[in-house]
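One-letter codes give the sequence; the fold follows as tokens. An example follows:
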Amino acid sequence: MDSDNEKQAVHEVERTVSEKHNDARIAEFTPQEQKRIIRRVDMRLVLTLGFLYMCSLMDRTNLGAANIAGLQSDSMSKGLSLTGYRYSLIVLVFFIPYVLFQPPATLLLRKVGPRIFLSAITVLWGGCMIGFGFVSKWDQMLGLRIILGVLEAGFFPGCAYLLSCWYTRYELQKRNAVFYLIGSMASAFSSILAYGLMQMDGLANLDGWRWIFIIQGLITCLFGIAGYFFIVDFPELAAKSWHFLDARETDFVVARIEHDRHDAIPEPFSLGAYLRNAADLKVWGFAALFGLTTTNTYAIAYFLPVILRVGMGFSIAKAQCLVAPPYVAAAIVMYGFAMLGDKYHVRGPIVAFNALLGLVGLPLLGYAKNNGVRYLGVFLATIACNANIPAVLTYQANNIRGQWKRALCSATLVGAGGIGGIVGSTVFRDQDSPKYGPGIMTTMIASGLVLIITGLLTLKFHRANKRADRGGKIIEGQVGFRYTL
């Protein structure tokens, strides 16, 4: 009986492959033409979203650069009164609306369309960022951070959802990696940019740290306006996008997605059906992975300049510039793993390896005596958590089906990432310098939990695939669908 079922499963896969090659919407294009179409999608979609994410990541994490540029020291003499817990509260409060507004924001993206929604919120939060340059009291900065959280809430899950709608399962990690790589480069070089902007101190009677917010906010507004002309909508609407795909090319893209996972066209929206997707345990497993990973990425993004300056004793100039090399290394490793993952259809082992890398790097950062060894720990820890962002995004996207489930998963995933941001933004405290023991221990625990949860998900998926091969329960409601391990 098992042999018959295995043969049936093989025939199902062969039939699907055969249908794909016989579909007229795909067959009318040569392989070279198909590649050219996908490259056009890459250029318009991945690069545009990546540059907007660069602005997003730069704007939400530039408090660390502004802090060592004089924000903290000027706060008492110039009325901000940024004392005690207030800086940590300003960092933290961003994530509360960022988490709460993600599910409705993702639904709004689907209704309004990515081009209008994503470009509009980018311009609005750029304006909010400019406002940071003119605050006179700490609670004004607190309020602006809340507004920033509301505006950015729909951006990252919207991008993750949109990318997953355009690509087949084993094309996606490379695209997620490039998207996130461009953003992480912002983390690498925004500190260098911030150091340059500090030199504007006194221009127009404004402090150097204020110019960091003003100029970066203006950059964001310009990118947001450009985004309106370059962001493309969902695949089934691509023919309506400005100077992009024609109707035949749009049909080709939709046909590819249909053959890959049969969910290219969204089913009618139902709130009950949408929320029922939350009963799937793996949705929360992926969310936990992402939240634990972002605990580390945010901790490093917010506090690495401070750790280098205070914890390791580097000058302001060196601390700002030494942030960049670990992020460059992370980008290289991130894309290398993405190539391997897409080529060999592997997801979980990559996530686990990166978690192990973090468990090596974080103790070096926290407990080594020599600054050179500690800086090596910075490299390993930065690589580990940043390379896992696209890996976890793709791990999730490969193992779910359905447009509205995909939208919910993107929201819960990135919402958990916001919770990780709350933890990551509070664990490195001034009183714990120069070793920052509690922060190092928290991030090590997060890496360990990533390793455990990935192991449990891999075991669950392996068993479900075996059961489906034997003719048992159909996975994700689609005959022939198998989990990617």
Summary: The two ends are 26 Å apart (CA to CA).
